[in-house]
Design brief:
Layout (H helix, E strand, L loop, with lengths): L1 E5 L28 H8 L6 H5 L6 H11 L23 E2 L23 E2 L2 E2 L3 H9 E2 L6 E6 H14 L30 E2 L9 E2 L29 E2 L8 H4 L3 H7 L16 E2 L2 E2 L37 H24 L5 H29 L1 H7 L16 H5 L12 E2 L14 E2 L8 H5 L3 H10 L1 E3 L7 E2 H4 L13 H11 L5 H7 L8 H8 L2 H11 L7 H7 L10 H16 L13 H9 L2 H8 L4 E2 L14 E2 L30 E8 L2 E8 L3 E4 L3 E5 L2 E2 L5 E4 L16 E5 L2 E6 L3 E3 L6 E3 L2 E4 L17 E4 L14 H13 L23 E5 L8 E2 L5 E10 L2 E9 L9
Helix pairs in contact: 4-15, 4-18, 5-8, 5-13, 8-9, 8-13, 8-22, 9-10, 9-20, 10-20, 17-18
Length: about 900
C-alpha cells in the first residue's frame, strides 16, 4: 500500500491582537473584500465569461476566478479588510494607482509607439532599442563605484520593490483565435508589443514582449461590459499587496502562505530546505514538484531546467543577492518565532508565527523608511516629500502607483554592478568570485554549492554599489545578456523598461515634472540644465526631437542628483510620494498607536539590518550601518557591539497581584493574553488540524477564570462530505492533526496528492541487491520508469530531463530478464521507506535529491555493466523531512 500524508487548513480562531494578512485576490482564494462592495463592483454575468476568454490577454484562470469570486459571499470576520472604508486600496490583484491619466495613442489601450507613423510634436517616438544603444548602454568595464554606499543598498531596493509590486504579463501562447503568439511575431498585435531591432542588425528583427495583463473590464475589454471609451482606459494590475508587509517572506495570498509555513512546527516556523544546509543554517525550500522548473541546473546536471527557491515572492532566485536576502529573512522569522515561543510557552504555534511575522514586517518598514529611503532622496527631499510620521491617515490610498512601479523605482537598475562579488572570511576575493551577472541569473545552485550566503553577504557589505553615472547607465550584462539560461537569445532590461512604460500608458517626462511642481523643459538649454550634461541633452533630443516626447524613465535617470541623494528631483518626488503613501495609509504601520506597545516600539527602533545579518549568518563583524560601504577591518565592528531588540518586551505574564494566573498549557494549542476595557482575557486557538472544544476565551474575575479552559480535538478531515480531502479513487485515513490518502498497488498518488493514478515502473534486476534496513545505507532494487518517477520513494522533483534519460537508458538495456513491477512500500513521515533508487545516466555526477516521505538522499555511482552506469540513491535520517512534504 502506498500512502501520502497531507494536511489541510481549517478555520481557526484569529487572534484579536493581530488581524489576518491583507489578502485580496481574484483567483477564488482569500478575498479581503466585503461582500457588499464585491457584489456591487465585481459582479459579472456568466454570459460574459466566454466573451472574456476570447480577449487575447485575459487568462481563463483569471476570468473564472472573477466569476466565482463575484458570486462569493465573503465572511468579513475571517477576511476583514486592511482598509475598512476602502477595502480594495492596497489589496493584491487590484489595479495600480494612476496619478495622471494614461497616454494611449487611441485614448483607450494602444501604447505610445504602437503606430510607427504616429507623430509627437512632429517627431516619431524612437524605437526603445535605439535609445538603449545610443544613450543607456555601457560596457561592463565602464563602472564607477559609489564612494558612500555599499552594494547592499542596491540589493535592498530590489528586494523591497518585490515586496510591494509585481505586474503580471499576458499569458502566452494564446488559445486559437485569442491573439498573437509573441514568440513568433514582430507585429504589434495583442497581446504582443515587440521591441523592434535595427533593420541592418544581424539576427532576429525583434525581441518578444508581452503586454502587461489588463485589469479586467478596462481598455478594449470594456466592450464586453458596454463601456468602451476613453473614460475606461486600460489599467494594469499589481499582483501583490502594496504594503511594506514582508510579503517577500510570507506571500500575498492565503495559498502562498500555506505553501510557506511549516504546519508541523509547534513554534510557528516557516519551511526550510531539507536537502541542503548552510554551515548548519537553513536555506530556502525548493518550489514544489508541481511548479514548472524555471532555474538553470549546475553544469553537467541533466535537463535544461532545475527547481527554483520557494519564497514569498517568485523572483527570489533571480540573482544571488536577492536569494541571500530572502534566506536571511526566512532565518530571522524562524529565530524570532522560536524565541517568542520560548518566552511564552502558552502561545499556540499560530500565535508565535503571527507575532514573529508582525515583528519581521515592522523591521522591513523600519529599515526601508529610516535607513534606505533617506539615502535615495537626500535629506532635503526626504523632509519635503516624506517628512515625519504623524499617524495613520485613513484618507490616504496606499496603493502602489503605476509610475512608481514602472518607472521611478526602476532607477535602481542603473546601480547594478556587472559582477557578483563574493568574499571569504578575511574579506578577500572568494575562489571563483569573479562571477559575471549573466552566469548568476536564476542559478540557485550558486548559493547552495559555492559557499552559501556568507560570501555573498560580505560582498554586499564591503564592495561599493555601482554609481549611477549619466554616461554609464546600464551595463551590458543588463542590456545584452539579461536572463541567459540557454542559447535561445537574450533580453535587454533598458529596452524592456522603456517599452513597459509605453505599454502602461505612462505620460511623458514633462507631464510628470509638472505633476511634481517642477518646471517643464522646452528647449535644449532647459534639458541641459536639468541633466547638467550638454552631451546627454544633445543625444536625447537627437532621438526624441522635443522634451515632451522623452520617456519618463529615461528622463528621470538623466537628471543630475540632488544634494546627498542618489536620484534627481523627479524621481525623488515620485519615490517620496509613494513611500509616504505606503506609510501613512497603512493601519498596521509599526509606529501607529496600538500596533505595538511603547516598550516594543522602543526595542524595534534599536534593531537594524546589521543586527539581522549578525543573528542569521556566520559573519562575526559587520558595519554598524549596513548601507555604508566599509573597508575591512577598520570599518567593521564585532557583532557583540551591534545593538538589537530585547524580546522580553514581548513576554506575556499575569500581573503580580493577579488572582487568576495562567491555566495549564493546552495540548495541541495555546492562548494569548489580551486586555479589553480593563478586563483580562485569554483567547485560545489550536494547532493546524485541530479544533477548539469549549469556550474560545476566558475572562478573569475576582474568583478566578470564569470557565474551564477548552481542549483541542483532532479534526477528522475524512468526514468532510462537502469537500472531501481525498479523491474517490483513494481511501482517506484520519491521523492526528492531518490525514492520509491511501492507494492500492499498482496505483500511487498523483501530483495533487489526493488522486490515485496507475504506476508503470519496472525493476532493474540486481542479483546482489537487497532492501536496506530501516536506518542506514545499502543497495537495493532500482526503479526505472517511463516519464516522471511515480514510486513513493522516487524523488518527485527530479528534472524531466533526468526522467527521460532514465527511461531511455533502461530501454537501451531492456534485455535484463528479471524485470518486474516493484513491490509496494508504505512511506509515512518519520519512517524510512527503505528503498534505494537507481537512475541509468550518461554522466557520473550525483545530483542532490530528496524523498517525499522524509530523509536525505545519498547518491553514489556504480556500473552494473560496462554499458549501463547507474546512480544509487539511498535514504538517510528521514525525521527532518516531514516539513518538506
Amino acid at each position: 500500500m502506498v500512502i501520502i500524508t497531507r494536511r489541510i487548513t481549517r478555520r481557526k480562531h484569529v487572534s484579536q491582537r493581530r488581524e489576518q494578512p491583507r489578502y485580496g485576490t481574484w483567483s477564488g482564494q482569500a478575498m479581503r473584500i466585503p461582500s457588499s462592495a464585491l457584489l456591487s463592483s465585481f459582479y459579472i454575468q456568466k454570459t460574459h465569461f466566454a466573451k472574456l476568454l476570447k480577449i487575447g490577454d485575459t487568462e481563463e484562470s483569471q476570468v473564472r476566478g472573477i466569476v466565482e469570486a463575484s458570486r462569493l459571499l465573503v465572511d468579513e470576520s475571517i477576511y476583514a479588510a486592511m482598509r475598512r472604508d476602502h477595502p480594495r486600496w492596497g489589496a493584491s490583484n487590484t489595479a495600480l494607482a494612476r496619478w495622471l491619466p494614461p497616454a494611449y495613442e487611441d485614448g483607450i489601450s494602444e501604447p505610445r509607439g504602437w503606430n510607427p507613423h504616429f507623430l509627437y510634436r512632429g517627431f516619431p517616438l524612437p524605437p526603445v532599442r535605439e535609445v538603449t544603444r545610443r544613450i543607456i548602454h555601457a560596457s561592463n568595464e565602464a563602472v564607477t563605484g559609489d564612494d558612500r554606499y555599499s552594494d547592499l543598498l542596491t540589493a535592498w531596493g530590489q528586494y523591497i520593490d518585490h515586496d510591494v509590486a509585481f505586474t503580471p504579463q499576458s499569458a502566452g501562447p494564446p488559445a486559437p483565435g485569442a491573439g498573437a503568439d509573441c514568440q513568433l511575431t514582430c507585429e504589434p498585435r495583442s497581446p504582443c508589443f515587440p521591441i523592434q531591432l535595427p533593420a541592418n542588425a544581424a539576427g532576429p528583427a525583434c525581441l518578444p514582449f508581452h503586454r502587461s495583463t489588463a485589469a479586467c473590464g478596462t481598455g478594449t475589454q470594456g466592450a464586453v461590459f458596454g463601456n468602451l471609451s476613453a473614460a475606461n482606459p486600460r489599467q494594469q494590475m499589481n499582483g501583490l499587496t502594496s504594503f511594506l508587509d514582508a510579503s517577500t517572506v510570507y506571500g500575498s495570498s492565503a495559498a502562498s502562505e500555506r505553501r510557506l509555513r511549516n504546519w508541523t512546527s509547534a513554534e510557528g516556523l516557516l519551511r526550510v530546505n531539507v536537502r541542503y544546509r548552510d554551515a548548519g543554517r537553513a536555506f530556502l525550500p525548493f518550489a514544489p514538484p508541481s511548479a514548472p522548473p524555471a532555474c538553470a541546473p549546475p553544469p553537467g546536471a541533466p535537463g535544461a531546467r532545475a527547481p527554483c527557491f520557494l519564497a514569498g515572492d517568485g523572483r527570489a532566485s533571480e540573482v544571488p543577492a536577492l536569494a541571500a536576502l530572502h534566506t536571511l529573512w526566512l532565518r530571522e522569522h524562524n529565530r524570532l518565532a522560536s524565541a517568542l515561543k520560548a518566552l511564552n510557552a502558552h502561545w499556540s504555534a499560530d500565535t508565535a508565527y503571527q507575532e514573529a511575522r508582525k515583528v519581521v514586517g515592522a523591521l522591513h518598514q523600519i529599515i526601508t523608511l529610516r535607513d534606505y529611503v533617506p539615502r535615495i532622496l537626500g535629506p532635503e527631499a526626504f523632509g519635503r516629500h516624506v517628512g515625519p510620521y504623524r499617524g495613520y491617515d485613513p484618507s490616504v490610498d496606499p496603493s502602489v502607483s503605476n509610475v512608481f512601479s514602472t518607472a521611478a523605482f526602476r532607477f535602481g537598475h542603473a546601480t547594478i554592478h556587472p559582477l557578483v562579488r563574493r568574499l571569504d572570511a578575511r574579506f578577500q576575493e572568494h575562489p571563483g568570485s569573479r562571477l559575471p551577472l549573466r552566469d548568476a541569473f536564476f542559478r540557485p545552485w550558486r548559493l547552495l554549492e559555492e559557499g552559501g550566503v556568507d560570501p555573498v553577504m560580505r560582498g554586499l557589505l564591503a564592495r561599493a554599489a555601482k554609481l549611477q553615472v549619466q554616461d554609464q547607465l546600464l551595463n551590458e550584462e543588463l542590456t545584452e545578456r539579461l536572463f541567459v539560461l540557454s542559447d535561445a537569445g537574450t533580453l535587454d532590461l533598458a529596452s524592456i523598461n522603456l517599452q513597459r512604460g509605453r505599454d502602461h500608458g505612462l505620460p511623458g517626462y514633462n507631464e510628470w515634472r509638472q505633476f511634481c511642481g517642477l518646471s517643464r523643459l522646452e528647449t535644449r538649454a532647459d534639458l541641459g540644465a536639468a541633466t547638467a550634461n550638454g552631451s546627454m541633452a544633445d543625444r536625447i533630443l537627437a532621438l526624441y526631437g522635443h522634451p515632451d516626447n522623452i520617456d519618463v524613465w529615461l528622463g528621470g535617470l538623466a537628471e543630475s542628483f540632488l544634494p546627498g541623494a542618489r536620484t534627481g528631483p523627479l524621481f525623488a518626488c515620485l519615490v517620496g510620494k509613494q513611500m509616504k503613501a505606503l506609510r501613512d495609509g497603512d493601519r498596521f504601520w509599526w509606529e501607529h498607536h496600538g500596533v505595538f506597545t511603547e516598550a516594543q516600539r522602543r526595542e524595534l527602533g534599536r534593531h537594524s539590518l546589521s543586527r539581522v545579518i549578525c543573528d542569521n549568518t556566520g559573519l562575526t563583524h559587520v558595519p554598524r550601518d549596513a548601507f555604508r560601504v566599509g573597508q575591512w577591518p577598520q570599518d567593521f565592528e564585532s557583532c557583540d557591539r551591534i545593538p538589537g531588540m530585547d524580546l522580553r518586551a514581548w513576554r506575556e505574564a499575569p500581573p503580580p497581584d493577579d488572582a487568576c494566573g495562567f491555566p495549564d498549557n493546552v495540548e495541541n494549542g495555546g492562548f494569548l493574553l489580551c486586555n479589553e476595557s480593563g478586563r483580562r482575557l485569554l483567547v485560545f486557538s489550536c494547532r493546524h488540524g485541530f479544533q477548539l472544544q469549549g469556550p474560545e476565551q476566558l475572562t478573569c474575575t475576582r474568583r478566578g477564570w470564569d470557565s474551564q479552559p477548552p481542549v483541542c480535538r483532532d479534526i477528522n478531515e475524512c468526514e468532510d462530505g462537502v469537500d472531501p480531502p481525498c479523491h474517490a479513487s483513494a481511501r482517506c485515513k484520519n491521523t492526528k492533526g492531518g490525514f492520509r490518502c491511501e492507494c492500492h498497488d499498482p496505483h500511487v498518488p498523483g501530483e495533487d496528492g489526493r488522486t490515485c493514478v496507475e504506476q508503470t515502473f519496472r525493476m532493474l534486476a540486481n542479483p546482489k541487491s537487497s532492501l536496506p534496513p530501516v536506518e542506514g545505507e545499502g543497495e537495493g532494487p532500482s526503479w526505472l520508469g517511463r516519464g516522471k518517477p511515480r514510486d513513493v520513494c522516487a524523488p518527485p522533483d527530479a528534472p524531466a530531463g533526468l526522467a527521460e534519460q532514465v527511461a531511455n537508458g533502461f530501454l537501451r538495456n531492456s534485455d535484463h530478464k528479471n524485470a518486474r513491477k516493484p513491490a509496494s512500500h508504505e512511506g509515512t513521515a518519520g519512517k524510512s521507506a527503505g528503498n534505494t533508487l537507481s537512475f541509468a545516466r550518461s554522466t557520473d555526477r550525483c545530483p542532490e535529491m530528496r524523498n517525499p516521505n522524509g530523509g536525505y538522499v545519498i547518491c553514489k555511482n556504480k556500473a552494473i555493466t560496462a554499458s549501463l552506469p547507474v546512480t544509487i540513491f539511498t535514504l538517510k535520517s528521514p525525521r527532518a523531512a516531514a516539513d518538506e512534504t
